[in-house]
Amino acid sequence: QTIVKFVEQWITSKLLWGNTYVLKQRDERNVVSALYVLDPARVTPMVTPQGSVWYRLRGDLLAQVPDRPSDSDNEIMVPAAEIIHDRLLPLLPPWVGIPPIYACGASATQGRKIQADSLRFFANQSAPGGLLVFPKDANLTEQQQKDNKAAWLSN
Q: How far apart are CA 138 and CA 60, in angstroms?
């Protein structure tokens, strides 16, 4: 794989999934000799009760994670030191990122609701609806009530 394709995979994974997971391959001297961008759908970050981070990897032949026949054996656990985890927009939980389209969803939903409310408001001839309420002990006369109504409508 060329460096251009490696970076392309990294960025694509980060933008589509909000996370890029890169598995480190070490040589006999314990020096990183190769890096493999993993399929984010096959990686699950796990946090132990003691706070250490591990990654559960499901079979991925391109990243040389063997695919085993039985489902229960089809995973390996890898410590955080062996994975490069690049997160985009981590919210909750803070160790997992979210894609930009998901992060923008709340703003888009709010914008749609504002437009719907504006449509209803202007369809009502731009006249806000509501009730004028006075305290029970105000004891307004019928004339005072009519005057208040006329003042409200004129404004």
A: 76
User: CB count, 10 Å around CB of 114?
Assistant: 10
pLDDT at residue number 69: 52
- Average pLDDT of the chain is 86
What's the half-sphere exposure (Cβ side, CA atoms, 13 Å) at 105?
A: 6
Task: Determine phi and psi for 70, rounding to 5 degrees.
Answer: -90, 145
Write the pLDDT tens digit of every residue in 111-134: 999 999 888 888 877 776 677 777
- What is the C-alpha to C-alpha distance for residues 13 and 37, in angstroms, rounded to an integer? 8
Question: Which comes out higher in pLDDT, residue 126 or 105?
Answer: 105
**26 phi, psi to nearest 5 deg:** -110, 150
Strands (E) across the chain are located at 19-26, 32-37, 43-47, 53-58, 75-79, 83-87
Instruction: Centre a 10 Å sphere on the Cβ of residue 21 and count the other Cβ atoms it contains.
Output: 27
Name the 3-class secondary structure at 30: coil
3-state secondary structure of 68: coil
More confident residue, 127 or 66: 127
**Cα distance between residue 73 and residue 67, in whole Å:** 9
